[in-house]
Design goal:
- Two copies of one chain form a homodimer.
- With 491 residues, chain A is an alpha+beta fold.
- Chain A folds into three domains: 12-68 and 131-285, BirA Bifunctional Protein, domain 2, CATH 3.30.930; 300-404, Rossmann fold (3-Layer(aba) Sandwich); 418-488, C-terminal domain of ProRS (Translation Initiation Factor IF3, 2-Layer Sandwich).
- The first copy, chain A, is 35% helix and 28% strand.
- In chain A, strands 3, 9, 10, 11, 12, 13, 16, 22, 23, 24, 25 and 26 form a twelve-stranded mixed sheet that branches. In chain A, strands 18-17-19-20-21 form a five-stranded mixed sheet, with helices on both faces. A three-stranded antiparallel sheet of chain A has the order 4-8-5.
- In chain A, helix 13 (424-433) links the parallel strand 22 (418-420) and strand 23.
- The relative contact order of chain A is 0.11.
- At the A-B interface, strand 2, helix 2, strand 3, strand 4 and helix 3 of A face strand 2, helix 2, strand 3, strand 4 and helix 3 of B.
- Strand 5 of chain A pairs antiparallel with strand 5 (91-94) of chain B, so a sheet runs across the interface.
Chain lengths: 491, 491
């Protein structure tokens, strides 16, 4: 077990950074706040993309691509939107460089100044709704169900790899509907898609809920979210689905002729998840031995490490290993046979353990003789010796077990770390001593939420989408409340 | 047949724009030179991406992601590179907007000026080689075989949808090698991958060759390319693979300890294709009835249009159509059943013909009775009536036929339009009267190429990668030449 990196106990934040770096997921770049996503980290994102993209298409959506640039004036059209995003925008002002007068390097060519500055998209509602105006005339043109995979930029001051970076990769769905009901239905549908993805692919249980006014997307009437709990007891917003009402249709004058012939503004939704999910995945499952990946998103599901002393043994063992690799691959399992002669087996064990590969097969000369193989699980670190011809039967089931096991473990953790607080003292005590989700009554006002945040750094993560009504009094203000909401400190 | 759009004969350029617009591939956006790629156009790009991505991975490459922004100073490190790209760069100078003093909209916050301006990547050699410096210590760290799918920006003054836009989507491979030979081998390998893709997926024959000095990538020692011929007799560069030598390794100080222990600069390649390929695809195959798509890249390979008068007929016909659709889909064919009651069959025929769907099945009440179906090919416009139960046997073969047929047609066109010119008069005559590829002797100098370009707008498209040596004299200067090269006017 690698011991030259932090444990969760010692320093959770350093533990996270160590995993990102040592597992080869990402690194900081020369550009402030922007990361390089390395091949292994990007491969996880590709698996996420593939699964989500299929879910989007299965629910009737198509992909499209809209410009990176947004004319500055578009931003001001929707008052809340500009308020929410103007303070963190990268702005393009010029379109040419020229040789510096002193001959050293290049400088901005001041004669190539844009008449109107362009903002790098922090999100694309404005440019997309400016486009939808051309696409919609009648109710027959609706709904529009479009998604975009893209990079966006938000000039964050404090950044952390995957969790908060100036540039990040995401998908943003933007849909247009004839009625409020349809738009709301879409908002819920995509929230369910995200919850399904988080639970069944990422193996992370999530709470579905509505955001408070303070945490609502700038320009939305209502923001729905999925909230996950990390191992340090902090919450992480893993996806949002916004009901935008007619705000953007009004800002960009997008109307349609209804069946009845009247001109109406179009109803909108938008929804997105980002590379932040890779951060959530790391923090939800990994342990003090490194990354732990759920099989569905693992770039390598099963690694095979040969053990040998002589060249002859190497050939024998590798031949058998290749046979096994081929057979598992035929079953659709992502296998890697690491037959490199430049690295020792022990180094390889550490490497793949640290990289969170769910299963490891080890084959040595005696295994070849006895037709056996040693099988190790990354999640429990359990090992077993198995007859080779049972592998194709055992491995798929084991991968499923690991997938389910990780989910169950994360669910149990969340349940252990969800507590009710019935007084302000209790609230602060739980927060400081245990963290986790706190179910507490709240008076529903932005003022109270703001004061709680100032005093404790905790915010309302969401108002859960369930029917658990219960009369009580706000833990902070003592005013009446109809239900408990979820508080936590959050990423 | 739709007649409210241009034919190739009447106005080739307008014909192209009409297809892009009417087939729903793309449209201009509110941002100068940037297009919106609409769902149908993007679906073609997704098919291209999927095929190329598999080819890259099959040749050992992984994907990664590097920052959108490049510090201005990085640009100046490689002299040719900055010369080639500085004049068309979008430059970020500020990172915040604020409310305008007069209360109308937002303005750039001058207090949020970047210390060093950031350039939006026009290509990523500089930021990537700055990163590779951290990745490479010894020969064991090589080769690095990485690809990136990304958006890039080049501030072009004259833009055309897909063919030349300020922002475009592409992939850029960036590899690092221990030896010159390995890097050259990689350069050729990826050129072959591109040629394979162009010919076997896009159904477009291409010439493989080397670029002249004038047309070489800024910073490369040698640029290899594939060149295709469009129906108006103009050439289109469809992909490039660059041998970068040690230029970027020297500019960013990327050295490795060789097996022998000496410190050496790393050898580099880069290679890319872009959404420009969608433009090539349109121009290579389409006709005066609209888009024609090769089956391998068609988002819909087979459309089914039901014909009916009564509700009862609709139900019967659609039931049968769904059966057929299911059966074809089981074979992996991309089928769309257009059972919308809001559009007439004639409208649908036009629509899918215009959108280039390779096969159309029509089912009416009499077909249901007789268990037949009408099958129409988009490429030849031929129709046949077929027994329903033969469909699963016939359709896959037909799609293959169409794929091959399009390639053969494009190949015949290129052969008819490749001509030798043996004098300057003949050169100009062919160029003005026929266009196409002109095989002519050239003295190999940049000066002569420049003069030919000024007088005729034709350039050396490539020096073909074949062994056809032949002594002759440059058509322009009369100086000796060892082989014919390919001239053409180009997109």
């Amino acid at each position: 077990m690698a011991k030259d990196f932090s444990t969760r106990e010692e320093n959770y934040s350093k533990w996270y950074n160590d995993i990102v770096q040592r597992a080869g997921l990402a690194e900081n770049s020369a550009v402030r706040g922007c990361m390089v996503i390395k091949p292994y980290g990007y491969a996880i994102w590709e698996k996420m993309q593939a699964a989500l993209d299929k879910m989007f298409k299965d629910t009737g959506h198509s992909n499209a691509y809209f410009p990176l640039f947004i004319p500055k004036s578009f931003f001001s059209r929707e008052a809340d939107h500009v308020e929410g995003f103007a303070k963190e925008c990268a702005v393009v002002t010029h379109y040419r460089l020229k040789n510096a007068p002193d001959g050293r390097g290049v400088v901005v060519d001041e004669t190539a100044k844009l008449e109107e500055e362009l903002v790098i998209r922090p999100t694309s509602e404005t440019i997309i709704w400016d486009t939808y105006r051309q696409w919609v005339q009648s109710y027959r043109d609706l709904p529009i169900l479009v998604n975009q995979w893209a990079n966006v930029v938000r000039w964050e001051m404090r950044t952390r790899m995957f969790l908060r970076t100036a540039e990040f990769l995401w998908q943003e769905g933007h849909t247009a509907h004839a009625t409020k009901e349809e738009a709301l239905e879409e908002t819920y549908r995509m929230l369910d898609v995200y919850a399904d993805f988080a639970e069944n692919h990422m193996a992370i249980p999530v709470l579905k809920g509505i955001k408070s006014e303070n945490e609502r997307f700038a320009g939305a009437l209502e923001t729905f979210c999925i909230e996950a709990l990390m191992q340090d007891g902090k919450a992480l917003q893993a996806g949002t689905s916004h009901f935008l009402g007619q705000n953007f249709a009004k800002a960009f004058d997008v109307k349609f002729a209804s069946k009845e012939g009247s001109l109406e503004y179009v109803w909108a939704t938008s929804w997105g998840v980002s590379t932040r999910l890779v951060g959530a995945l790391i923090m939800a499952h990994s342990d003090d031995n490194g990354l732990v990946l759920p099989p569905k998103l693992a770039p390598i599901q099963c690694v095979i490490v040969p053990i040998y002393k002589s060249r002859e043994q190497y050939d024998q063992v590798c031949e058998k290993a290749r046979e096994i690799s081929d057979r598992l691959q035929e079953q659709g399992i992502r296998v890697k046979l690491d037959d490199r002669d430049t690295h020792k087996p022990g180094w390889k064990f550490n490497e793949y353990e640290f990289k969170g590969v769910p299963l490891r097969l080890v084959i040595g000369p005696r295994d070849v003789e006895k037709s056996t193989v040693e099988l190790a699980r990354r999640d429990t670190l359990e090992k077993q010796v198995l007859a080779m011809d049972r592998l194709t039967e055992v491995v798929p089931g084991l991968l499923e077990d690991i997938q389910k096991g990780l989910y169950q473990k994360a669910l149990a953790f969340r349940e252990e770390n969800t507590r009710e607080a019935n007084s302000w003292e209790e609230f602060k005590e739980i927060l400081d001593e245990k963290g986790g989700f706190i179910m507490a009554h709240w008076d529903g006002t932005a003022e109270t939420e703001q004061k709680i945040k100032e005093e404790t750094k905790a915010t309302v993560r969401c108002i859960p989408l369930d029917d658990n009504k219960e009369n009580g009094r706000c833990v902070y203000s003592g005013k009446p409340s109809e239900r408990r909401v979820v508080f936590a400190r959050a990423y």
